[in-house]
Amino acid sequence: MLREGSWAHLLPWGPVDLVVSNPPYVFSQDIEQLAPEIRSYEDPAALDGGEEGMDIIAHILALAPRLLKDSGSVFLEVDPRHPELVGSWLRSRPDLSLDLVAVRKDFCGRPRFLHIRRSEAQHGCPADT
The domain containing residue 70 runs over which residues? Predict the structure, then answer.
């Protein structure tokens, strides 16, 4: 697992085509409701994603524009509530040039896998709006 302070060491590896992560994404208030075998054997730091389960996800996405090649992708396993949260978070951060391009379902039909792509770098003057 990556801790915030250790992330900078990834930048020399870039630019890369893709990042794949199963980050800690459980909402803090949901930890106690996890199955006993999960709570007993998993490191809580590998599960607890913070208040909305977004703490590590947000750090990964904030780092992604500096780590990914143009049109590079991030693939994340997330809680079924995250597609909407991540989509909103990305729309609030247009400076990151990341787009949620696909949400895939798990075997139970829950939205659990996100494909986020870096937009190609803007060259020259920005388009008029």
Answer: 14-118
Chain mean position to CA 91: 14
Phi-psi region at 119: left, alpha or beta (left = phi > 0; alpha = psi -120 to 50)? beta
How far is CA 87 from its chain centroid?
10
What is the rounded distance in angstroms from the CA atom of residue 76 to the CA atom of residue 98? 13
Question: Is 4 part of any domain?
Answer: no
Asked, for residue 127, whether it belongs to a domain, the answer is no
Asked whether residue 9 is domain-assigned, the answer is no
Per-residue pLDDT tens over the stretch 25-71: 999 999 999 999 998 899 989 999 999 999 999 999 999 998 999 99
**Chain centre to alpha carbon of residue 45:** 16
